[in-house]
């Protein structure tokens, strides 16, 4: 993939911390975990800060990289998978098309609970076959059209799943790189020496590489060990989410039934995707800086791309308490 370089000054403007009322698109694999639901609700309940232009259903699949490919699973992950299968039954097998359908339906449920008329758009029903060939979908067309609308500042694309829709849009129309800023959560910090086995990254490796290689303005929010700080317990959700209107009850009941949370004392769950919404709501909640964009090696390790590499913004910390205090506040006010 060889695309013209963006002007460095334009890149830095598009990567600057958001300010004021901003327009966002959420590209979500909701129903893969319970974190997307929290992120979507939080974004929809902050119209004072965010104008959510669309929810794009992103593809995801199960029982592919986690179950069928042991090369991408650590011993600890394998132990967790075995425990879940033993305690909660077989892992549901889904392909990308199933994932998009489930995500779109869940977006409709959440939008209804939040009394929002936000457009919900079906995404790509297959992952990229390589780093040059986009996959067509309504979500790709929608994102391109939104990117070209007149606005002050960029359209912020919050990518909280595999990057298939976003990468396909960039490959279809590279000029949108001058008009968007993509915030994606996945994997490990760019200095991490071990292979990256993050779900969002390995679901669609060609799409992940497009984000890194295309030069699209890119805010990288590592799942480890930034998003991972956004842990919450069921008792905390019981106190601050349950009873906070229909949407609060929905989030709590979903969490209570999640095999990843449960009622065991001291157990917590990471609500990963809140980190993307935190970035556009209040960038002071995150510690970030501009760094050279790494390459992703075939062994899934980060590689130094050498001098002259385009910059990305990377986070290395998040104010966990500020994030949850704001989320709990808006749920209470909405109730």
Q: What would CATH call the architecture?
A: Alpha-Beta Complex
- Order of strands side by side in the largest beta sheet? 3-2-1-4-5-6-12-9
Termini separation comes to 49 Å
Structural class: alpha/beta
The major pleated sheet works out as: 8 strands, mixed
Reported by name, the CATH topology is Inosine-uridine Nucleoside N-ribohydrolase, Chain A
CA gyration radius, whole angstroms: 19 Å
CATH superfamily: Ribonucleoside hydrolase-like
Helical fraction equals 25-40%
The total of helices stands at: 12
Explain what the structure shows.
The protein is of the alpha/beta class and 335 residues long. It has one domain (8-334): Ribonucleoside hydrolase-like (Inosine-uridine Nucleoside N-ribohydrolase, Chain A). 37% of the residues lie in helices and 18% in strands. The chain has helices at residues 8-14, 35-44, 75-88, 96-113, 138-147, 164-172, 199-203, 205-213, 234-240, 245-256, 274-281, 320-334, and strands at 22-28, 50-57, 120-122, 155-160, 180-186, 218-222, 231-233, 268-270, 286-292, 295-296, 302-303, 311-318. An eight-stranded mixed beta sheet has the order 3-2-1-4-5-6-12-9, with helices on both faces. It has a two-stranded antiparallel ribbon with strand order 7-8. Strands 10-11 form a two-stranded antiparallel sheet. Helix 6 links the parallel strand 4 and strand 5. Helix 2 (35-44) packs across helix 4, helix 5 (138-147) crosses helix 6 (164-172) and helix 6 (164-172) packs across helix 8.
């Amino acid at each position: 993939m060889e695309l013209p370089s963006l002007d460095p000054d334009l890149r830095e403007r598009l990567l600057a911390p958001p300010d004021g009322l901003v327009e966002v698109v959420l590209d979500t694999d909701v129903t893969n975990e319970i974190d997307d639901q929290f992120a979507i609700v939080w974004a929809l309940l902050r119209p004072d800060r965010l104008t959510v232009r669309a929810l794009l259903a992103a593809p995801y699949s199960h029982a592919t990289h986690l179950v069928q490919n042991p090369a991408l699973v650590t011993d600890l992950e394998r132990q967790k998978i075995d425990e879940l299968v033993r305690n909660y039954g077989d892992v549901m097998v889904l392909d990308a098309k199933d994932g998009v359908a489930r995500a779109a339906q869940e977006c409709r449920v959440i939008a209804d609970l939040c009394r929002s008329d936000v457009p919900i758009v079906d995404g790509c029903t297959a992952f990229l076959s390589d780093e040059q060939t986009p996959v067509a979908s309504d979500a790709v067309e929608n994102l391109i059209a939104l990117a070209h609308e007149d606005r002050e500042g960029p359209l912020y694309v919050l990518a909280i799943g595999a990057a298939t829709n976003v990468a396909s849009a960039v490959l279809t129309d590279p000029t949108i790189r001058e008009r968007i800023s993509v915030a994606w959560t996945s994997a490990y910090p760019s200095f991490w020496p071990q292979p990256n086995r993050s779900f969002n990254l390995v679901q669609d490796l060609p799409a992940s590489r497009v984000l890194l290689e295309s030069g699209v303005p890119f805010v990288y929010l590592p799942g480890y060990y930034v998003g991972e700080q956004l842990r919450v317990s069921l008792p905390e959700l019981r106190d601050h989410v349950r009873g906070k209107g229909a949407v609060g009850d929905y989030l709590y009941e979903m969490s209570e039934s999640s095999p990843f949370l449960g009622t065991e004392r001291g157990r917590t769950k990471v609500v990963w995707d809140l980190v993307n919404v935190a970035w556009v709501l209040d960038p002071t909640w995150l510690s970030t800086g501009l760094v050279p964009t790494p390459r992703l090696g075939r062994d899934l390790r980060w590689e130094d791309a050498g001098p002259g590499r385009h910059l990305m913004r990377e986070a290395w910390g998040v104010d966990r308490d500020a994030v949850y205090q704001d989320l709990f506040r808006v749920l209470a006010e909405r109730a």
